[in-house]
Amino acid sequence: MPLSSVASHVHELSESAATKEHFKQLIDWVEDQKPNTLISRPFVVKEKAFSIMMSSGLRFSLLGKMDFGWGKPVFTSCHVPTTRMDCHVMPLASPVNVDDWIVYMHLPKKQLDYMVARAGNVFKPLTASYLQRALNPQISRI
């Protein structure tokens, strides 16, 4: 199936759910769940099944916008407790280049190895030298 067809299907599905009433019900449901921890669970009941929770922090950027009293942050990150058994993937804005994302992946080694093998040209490890560019504006942007 061509990517444009997939995009059309996703658009149709999201358009049918993107109503004011739907979001009101979703907010009510989340409010009802507050006492409980929301952790994703596998949809397939198998011994080795696992779930991946996808989230996005791309619009939740504090970079250059918030001052906590010691200056504006040059880097933000997400925290995934080590006690979580589910998998978590979350892209955040890069402090170095507006076209870059920093993607946090809390995945089993097998899945991380797969990502490196299949998308090593897209995903690169986060390094101190990359982050140093955020602290030193004289270093050319990527």
Provide the residue-averaged pLDDT: 75
Major sheet: order of its strands? 1-2-3
Share in helix: 25-40%
H/E series: HHEEEHH
Based on helices, strands and strand pairing, what is the structural class? alpha+beta
Which spans of ≥5 residues are poorly predicted at pLDDT below 50?
Answer: none
DSSP strand count: 3
Q: Tell me the strand percentage band.
A: 5-15%
- How far apart, in Å, are the first and last alpha carbons? 34 Å
Query: Sheet with the most strands?
Result: 3 strands, mixed
Q: Could you characterize what this model shows?
A:
This protein is α+β, with helices and mostly antiparallel strands. The radius of gyration is 19 Å and the shape is globular. It starts with a helix and ends in a 7-residue tail after the last helix.
SSE diagram, text form:
Blueprint: H1 3-17, H2 20-33, E1 52-54, E2 87-93, E3 101-106, H3 109-119, H4 128-135
Parallel strand pairs: 1-2
Antiparallel strand pairs: 2-3
